[in-house]
């Protein structure tokens, strides 16, 4: 475990650098108030260290000579009622590049050191204000690209994942304590009931962990986003569909087949999922080197996208290129057949599409018909059939997902040990390994390398 150094006082610009209305420079540490005493003069005349906690005070940032650097408001948050559980001071000054840089330099000259990326949040974790899953959620909130992703991040920030894991952990700890007592004192009949209750306890824990793993089908796309490739033969309306889903004209649309020769990519929000839509070149038998490269690129996106919209022209019968794509993609579960131009007389053999893909969606990209239904189906393909529920905690971190899978494996191994009548020592070890996975998520057990990897992706000042 890493030990915090109380003698270290850190400072950083917490707002974006550059010209803005207000810049906030944050200080945290044992000497934060002492530094504030040296660089800030309140209009009322008192020292910052003598001011009440959670107060905002008007005054001036000054050099040792008394020369004013900037007019500012000084926020005081005394330990332990602060973000880091240390004394925290925040200087709210004018948002000029020079003024904020000069103030930060002044703080460094008066005993602060520059904060590392994420160091304020790391201190909040090390000082016990939040657990590690909540600390990671800070960046989920900051980096959220949709309202659904923001809600998911806030649930983690409020301790939603911890609330799910801690009861399971407590029961496993009780089970482990009983098992180890039975191992150490086999003659004591009082511990005999432990082995009788163990299978039910393990099964409950396994179900709880599997439920959390299942939520990653929603949580990972909300956090990381998803790619959706719009594919099909030329002139089926792929570019029109891209424009319709974006609700603005992005791709050039003409009646000439093959207008799109290169991919066009744009980000949008589909049912709360940050989605990158990819308009690909029409897939057909290439006639020259340029077409060959365009088709190869389209097929590559078709193979690696999280979801594929396979577009057909509903106003025409299926052509050879359509049928070739159907044969190639019919077994892929992330493919959604989309019949465009539903405002025209239907000529495409939709029965073949139902047989190959189980369903299809009829839309009119030109007139905007059925786009809401299409978006629901796209979300279903990305979420792999699992609809998110309001207020639910999602696993949105691949680190958490891997640790939960490891925990599940050890719990299953522990359960198998009971069924097979193996040594209770083996069962106890598997339970310990399962608990280690849970503890790594919550930060009850961690290494310096893990913290460096987690907080290294934070911005400086957070």
Keywords:
alpha/beta, Gyrase A, domain 2, Rossmann fold, 462 residues, 3 domains, 47% helix, seven-stranded mixed beta sheet, flat, Four Helix Bundle (Hemerythrin (Met), subunit A), six-stranded mixed beta sheet
CATH superfamily of the largest domain: P-loop containing nucleotide triphosphate hydrolases
Instruction: Provide a count of the helices.
Output: 15
- Biggest sheet, strands in spatial order? 3-4-5-6-2-1-7
Q: According to CATH, what is the topology of the largest domain?
A: Rossmann fold
Order of helices and strands: EEHEEEEHEHHHHHEHEEHEHEHEHHHH
| Mean residue pLDDT | 88
Q: Multimeric state of these chains?
A: single chain
CATH class label of the largest domain = Alpha Beta
